[in-house]
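User: Structure please.
Assistant: Input sequence and predicted structure:
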Amino acid sequence: MDGLTHLDEQGAARMVDVGAKPDTERLAIAGGSVFMQPETLRLIREGAINKGDVLTIARIAGVMAAKRTSELIPLCHPLPLTHVDLDMRLDDQRSAVHIEATARTIGKTGVEMEALTAVTVAALTIYDMAKAVDRGMRLSDIRLLEKRGGQRGDYTIGDYAAPAESEMP
């Protein structure tokens, strides 16, 4: 495991200098879930939440959040994102909405934080939109699933399998 790159020799926080790194194609996929009461999931599926279309608003919020990650996370570099997409799958068996965000760029540093931020804000948006009917919702399992590009190589979480197109709503 490499050392912490956001600390200088004295242990002070710093932004990593990526100026000498080559531009490469980068991709990150993050995932997470929002667990809720079955009735809440039914209302989301039927578009019956009073605030509107929960999944569409959460998808837009996730994209917007990815684009503003460097404003939210102090030591993140601002990145020219070439693509951000969020997929959400309703899971009746576990009474959950599973969120997957994909972020891409061509640059000197990766897009893991952008994908993770997209998932987190999408999950928070689902909570915000449905909290009037279910304050006990639980955001869970927000994590990096896959990354490609960069000096440290590719990474895929051990139990990750991308959902099939037919599983997406």
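The longest strand covers residues 24-35.
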